[in-house]
Amino acid sequence: MNRLMAKTIEKIVVSEGNKFLSLDKGFLESDLIYSQRRNPSLYVHIPFCKMLCPYCSFNRYPYKEELAKSYYKALKKELVLYKNKGFQFDEVYFGGGTPTVNLDLLVDFVEFLKSLFSITQISIEANPSDITKESVKRLKSIGVTRLSIGVQSFKDSVLKEMGRHSHTSREAQDNIKLASGHFKTVNIDFIFNFPSQTIEDIVSDVNFVNELGVDQATFYPLMPSPHKKTKIERKFNSIDTHREYSFYKKLLSCVGNSFTPSTCWCFSKGTHTIDEYIINHPEYIGIGAGSIGFIQDTFFVNTFSPENYISLLSDSKFPIVMSKKASKKESARYYMLTQLFGMKMNEKELKERYGSAINSELLALSATGMINKKNGVYHTTQSGMFYIGLMMKQFFTSLNGLREICISNKY
Ligand SMILES: C[S@@+](CC[C@H](N)C(=O)[O-])C[C@H]1O[C@@H](n2cnc3c(N)ncnc32)[C@H](O)[C@@H]1O
Ligand code: SF4
Question: Which of 233, 267, 335, 369 lies in the 20 to 30 Å Cα band around 163?
Fold first, then answer.
């Protein structure tokens, strides 16, 4: 690894990411414009989990049945607000938190969603402990096309150290077998570079992926928010970001034979849907507490608090608390980052959207061998994958910081 390059990238993306994500209070409803040509996707956030994992920096709260019921009612109201503004969606991504935490509420919501829109793809994140024969049957019957199961590690001692007590390795394996082959895509999520993890643990995780016959595996580098980083480091050793490259290099060599990269972190057998709706769809609407939307170069951020979210929707108000109109350069950089993270970017589409706004960035990436251009398409090279992933990690880390600020300010 070129440490200087990694450090420089980190510095630039952190400072640009912070600028980019410094949002203004409020929003203009007139900025929420549907464009059929841009075909936005829909992200639905379910912020509840039965057990909270200490490393997790997503917007999530302990599951309470009554709160979840009111939350789903509010989600339906928010969906109708978008329908009334003329929005159409065909692809939907449920993330969390844990969308499978209450299957009855989820199934009811998906049925409502399908009564409003012609949905063709449904991706859902699930906790291994929620996978049973019965839940697989129900998820299939509502048309789930991609099930993404969070495992994090197949080593019990790592799970324990992570504070992930919702399942053991054996339970995760057994439950994944129940889902495997029943959906168009079954994905497993892992985290790498946790302080107690070794390179051998990652090799073993990849072996499990092969044995279990899943279609896809996503490996996230540990990305704690500033507050979580201090907590993890107080409990374990410090997070050594220099180890990340060794983990990643090993990962590429292990998954290389039977899987191809769908993103810098996600590896698939053949072509499969990925979780990163921000790659497949440059424009998206996010509903639910703490969701983010990006429409016509404007970011919209919903309130993070489920109670506030429910309260705003009880008055049929959009729960958006912050927004930001990105400049042409900022939008072009964001587009470039998401596309190259997804391994390729079409030059004609880039030019149509943003002209020559990021010519110098493209020159720098080409000169350092991170991308190359073939037949009008920029491709992320194998040596570029780590660095483009690093840029995405820094972007997500800035996002985690923003999330923490918003939660502490009760937005
Ligand atoms: C929002 S979680 C939802 C999945 C589900 N709740 C579960 O844990 O099984 C999606 C994935 O994000 C990843 N993740 C969560 N916290 C992370 C962190 N701090 N750094 C890197 N990846 C993280 C985990 O791999 C997790 O499975
Ligand atoms: S990793 Fe999943 S189960 Fe754990 S707290 Fe985060 S969202 Fe909830």
Answer: 267
CA-97 nearest atom, ligand 1: 6
CA distance 47 to 59: 6
1-24+328-406: in CATH 1.10.760? no
Instruction: Give bridge partners of residue 42 from the DSSP assignment.
Output: 92, 285
The token pair that represents 389 in the structure block:
């992933």
350/63 Cα distance (integer angstroms): 42
- Pocket flag, ligand 1, residue 55 (CB < 6 Å): yes
pTM over 0.90: yes
Assigned CATH topology for domain 25-279: pyruvate-formate lyase- activating enzyme (3.80.30)
pLDDT, tens only, 92-116: 999 999 999 999 999 999 999 999 9
Tokens 């590896």 identify what position? 267
Ligand number nearest CA of 225 is 1
Looking at the DSSP assignment, which residues form a beta bridge with residue 24?
A: 323
Phi, psi (5° rounding) for residue 351?
A: -65, -40
* Sequence ranges of the domains in the chain: 1-24+328-406, 25-279
Question: Phi/psi at 223 (nearest 5 deg)?
Answer: -130, 75
